[in-house]
Write a structure and sequence with these properties.
single chain; 369 residues; mainly alpha; 3-stranded mixed β-sheet; 17 helices; 3 strands; 2% strand
Length: 369
């Protein structure tokens, strides 16, 4: 697939993970050697003793990436001396760690219990995709990675507040991280590839895997949809024309399309299809909101309500309406294409627009029939 930088390949070797992360950006902005030394000494004092003891004279007051991730996982906090670029590296390190756990549990022998007796290998070998959300240990690692991302996001929000609401590029990486970790993005990309290339092999199996995610992992799926929608918000208003923006918008668009296509539909969608909506308690209608604007920042309480009971709420997007309505999935593809068209003309952007256009034609025909 052409979205090569979303493939689950190792991003860093073990040796790379032991190198110190880049120093704070403020050190590069120092006006004199004396200013630099004062800033460097201040950053060094903020380091934990375990990190400071491992620094060499050539290290600029920065822990290793491995140490920074350990601190985030175990103590639920980040090293204060890290700059924004170092925090972005931490986000990608969280990807890698979660993918390592996923790779381990995806191997057939992982779930096999060793024994001295002879067994039939056909009971072990399987080509059926393993349902990772159903594995307790994997789910705990994924939740822990999301906790680390929350810590990073708290810091990002403080930077946004200090900048009077201006969002910096790290925010896009944080939203994209939830989309990547909480969706089967490779299966979604594979499904799109099979549909646009008119290939029937593995189509049914891949479609069912994505459907299962939308229905059985629905709480995590709805959380991913919130971040996919707010990613649209960020790119519309704070784009820096970075090379990673087109692929981020493309992946967020496909995640929204997959959820709108396969999730349990809201009352409006049921009315469009002529089927009765789920019964809802009158008290619940009175005290809980009935809709959420996905592509607009929302308070934490509303986000939690959508995650827990979003199947009965309208998931609205500007230019789309209700994502889970009959035409919602096609409309979000069109909106994603429009957002991509407003970005710089990177090669990735052109390829993404072409793929979305083909998928729009295919889904438009299915909707019409």
């Amino acid at each position: 697939m052409w979205a090569f930088h979303f493939q689950k390949r190792p991003l860093l070797s073990l040796e790379d993970a032991c190198l110190p992360v880049p120093c704070q950006e403020v050190l590069w902005e120092a006006q004199s050697g004396l200013d630099w030394q004062q800033l460097h000494d201040c950053a060094t004092r903020k380091l934990q003793p375990i990190f400071r003891a491992t620094l060499t004279q050539n290290c600029l007051a920065s822990p290793s990436l491995h140490s920074a991730i350990q601190l985030a996982y175990i103590e639920k906090r980040l090293q204060s001396s890290m700059g924004e670029f170092s925090r972005i590296l931490c986000i990608h390190a969280l990807f890698r760690r979660t993918w390592e756990v996923e790779t381990y549990f995806s191997q057939p022998l992982t779930l096999w219990m060793p024994t001295a007796s002879k067994q039939d290998i056909r009971n072990v070998s399987t080509f059926t995709p393993i349902w990772l959300p159903g594995i307790h240990t994997y789910a705990k690692w994924r939740n822990s990675a999301c906790d680390c991302l929350d810590i990073l996001h708290w810091h990002a929000n403080s930077v946004i507040g200090a900048a009077s609401g201006m969002e910096h590029p790290t925010v896009l990486h944080l939203h994209l991280a939830r989309v990547i970790l909480l969706t089967p993005f490779q299966e979604i990309l594979k499904l799109v590839h099979l549909m646009t290339k008119s290939r029937q092999s593995d189509l049914v199996e891949t479609r069912e895997y994505v459907r299962r995610w939308a229905l059985e992992d629905q709480h995590k799926a709805r959380l991913a949809m919130i971040h996919a929608g707010v990613l649209f918000w960020h790119v519309r208003r704070f784009s820096t024309d970075a090379f990673y923006e087109p692929s981020s918008v493309f992946l967020a668009t496909l995640a929204l399309w997959a959820y709108g296509t396969f999730s349990n539909n809201t009352s409006e969608a049921h009315r469009e299809r002529g089927s009765p909506p789920e019964e809802e308690d009158d008290d619940a209608r009175a005290f809980f909101p009935t809709s959420l604007q996905l592509d607009r920042p929302a308070d934490d309480e509303l986000v939690q309500l959508f995650v827990k009971r979003g199947a009965t709420m309208r998931a609205n997007i500007t230019g789309v309406g209700n994502l889970c309505s009959l035409k919602g999935p096609v409309r979000v593809l069109i909106e994603g294409r429009n957002v991509l068209a407003g970005l710089k003309t990177w090669g990735e952007s052109r390829r993404a627009i072409g793929t979305l256009s083909k998928l729009i034609d295919i889904c438009g025909q299915d909707t019409a029939t």
